[in-house]
Design brief:
404 residues, alpha/beta, Rossmann fold, 2 domains, seven-stranded parallel beta sheet, 15 strands
Length: 404
């Protein structure tokens, strides 16, 4: 039986369904899977689920300096693997000895052993799983980027997050036939399932709780619910929270009955809390995880995230929400899923222009309905089941077609 070891800094909660599905698919192909990972840094806010993965191997993350770290136990965990899959990270020191040993085997050592008629000690094949480049950055980092490009071509295989990532890796000179695009996804089926039992009356009651609206008056006059935007992500600088707050204030001026729900927590919480205190039409509900987010997302008509956008795009699509972001240079590869004018919009990175675009769609019910329908349909294309299947196909191809 072949063996593959996936190494993660942290086995986070949203990866658990993927790991469990992948293990079953690989087992059917006579390939054993292990996942080696450490714990989050104190106060990082990540949810570690490695102990809930039966084939997980607990390691220990140790900071060296800055964001550079070494994971104790990784070399031992991957010792008997035929393939080791890393996160693409310059800062993960433990990947270097494995990659160096692999590169030496493929060049000098292999030729020497062949010349002497000796059998070489074959190290595991190495693969990257990642973005293809450091995308979530506010400013250029030339030295870091050059090293990342150099390292990206020193592996046997690539598992690219999306076609955007695959194109980046191809441009670096990595062979296209050794790249698997996995279409990075999370378990959104659970969100769709959690939406089904939430009734209109429950949503009206939630609106009354959040905005103190007179729901009875709305029913008596048959007035439609006010258009609502939703933001759901960590409140961190890359999400452009000041931009978001300025933009929704402008949307409220253009659409007087507009309301907003902000889901999430993080270092920008004070700005959000103060804004909501001054503007009762905007409600902050703190961090919500998994299906507990669903009622708040279900209140929305549009999903607003002007800053860095990643897997949250699939959460929005799962609830049929078109996504509105900006044409910035800090998005994660999942921006590939947002098709401008079809399931959302990419506006200019200016709060007023962004607000104008959102308001224009809100005031056009036909256009908004069309965007919602396409968002819902596209959300069903990018599933964790499809991702696990693609990943397994890549593992199989690497093990069977790469030179040992």
């Amino acid at each position: 039986m072949k063996r593959v070891c996936i190494i993660q800094r942290v086995a986070v909660d949203y990866r658990k369904p993927f790991f469990l599905l992948l293990e079953r698919i690989l087992a059917a192909r006579s390939i054993a899977l292990t996942v080696a990972a450490g714990a989050p840094w104190p106060g990082e806010g990540l949810v570690d689920v490695l102990d809930e993965v039966p084939f997980g191997i607990r390691c220990r993350n140790r900071k060296v300096f800055g964001n550079v770290y070494w994971t104790n136990g990784v070399l031992r965990a991957s010792r008997n693997a035929d393939l080791v899959v890393f996160e693409q990270s310059n800062a993960a020191l433990h990947l270097y000895p494995i990659i160096i040993r692999r590169c030496l085997h493929k060049t000098r050592r292999r030729s020497l052993m062949a010349a002497r008629g000796e059998q070489a000690d074959v190290p595991p094949m190495a693969a990257f799983w990642g973005h293809g480049a450091h995308l979530n950055k506010a400013k250029a980092q030339p030295i870091r980027d050059k090293w990342k490009k150099f390292l990206a071509t020193r592996v046997d295989w690539w598992f690219a997050y999306t076609d955007l990532s695959a194109d980046i890796v191809k441009r670096l000179g990595f062979p296209a036939e050794k790249i698997t695009t996995v279409n990075n996804a999370v378990d959104t089926d659970s969100l769709r399932a959690a939406r089904v039992p939430v009734s209109d009356d429950e949503l009206l009651s939630l609106r009354r709780e959040l905005f103190r609206e007179d729901i009875g008056a709305m029913r008596r006059t048959c007035r439609a619910k006010p258009p609502t935007g939703v933001f759901c992500a960590r409140l961190v600088p890359l999400k452009w929270i000041p931009f978001l707050l300025r933009a929704i204030g402008r949307i409220r001026e253009l659409v007087p009955d507009f309301t907003m729900v902000i889901v999430g927590d993080g270092p920008e919480r004070a700005a959000v809390r103060d804004f909501c205190h001054r503007n009762r039409w905007c409600a902050w509900v703190g961090a919500r995880h998994g299906p507990e987010r669903v009622p708040f997302l279900a209140l929305g008509d549009v999903f607003l995230n002007p800053g860095m956008l990643g897997l949250a795009v699939l959460d929005a699509f799962a609830l049929g929400l078109p996504v509105f972001s900006t044409d910035n240079r800090i998005h994660s590869p999942e921006i590939f899923y947002l098709k401008h004018g079809l399931n959302g919009l990419l506006s200019a990175p200016d709060p007023d222009a962004y607000a104008q675009d959102v308001a224009a769609v809100i005031r056009d019910p036909v256009r908004l309905s069309t965007l919602k329908e396409r968002a819902s349909a596209d959300g069903k294309r990018y599933t964790v089941e499809a991702m696990a299947k693609r990943f397994a196909e890549g593992v199989d191809a690497c093990l069977n077609h790469c030179e040992a």
